[in-house]
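Page 47, continued from p. 46.
Same chain as before, 162 aa.
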Amino acid sequence: MTFVQHSQSLFLLCIALVGIFSAALHAAPLPEGWTLHKGKTLTIGVPPGFSVDEISASEVDLINEEEQIKFSVFVPTKGAQPKMMEVEVGEKLTEKDSSTKGDTEETQMTMKGKNYIRFVVSLVNSAKDTNVCWGIRVPNMDDYKNTRPTYVKWKQTLTVLN
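Result:
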C-alpha cells in the first residue's frame, strides 16, 4: 500500500469514531494492562510502554520512546487550537485535504520528517459544537501497520469531560 492509501484508511477510521466523540459517550473499557490518564477535559487510556505528556488542558500526547511512536489527541476548550495541526520545523506537508460531510468538516494531513511520518485528522461538527483532533507519529509505514491496532483501541478509550 502507498502512503496515501494508508493515510486514507486512517482517516476513514477516524470518521467512524467521530460518533463516539460527538455523542460524548463513555469510553470503551480499558484493555488489560492499560492505565487511565485523567486530564482536565478528558480521560484516555495509556497502553503499556507509553508515557503521558499533557501539552495543555485540551491536548495530550502519549509517547513510546523505545519505539519512537507518539499518539496525540486534542479536545478543545474555548479558543484553543491544536498544536498537532502545525507543520513542525524539518517536516514537509505531503498531503492535506479538507471536506465537509453534513455538519462535519474534516481536515486530513500527512507530514514527513527526516525519520518519521505523521498523520493528523481534525473533525469539527458545527451543529453539535464539537471538535476532536487525532494524530499518530511513527518511524515508518511498517511501524504504522504494527501500531495501528493499539492506536485504534486507544482512540476508543476517550471520554470527554463536561
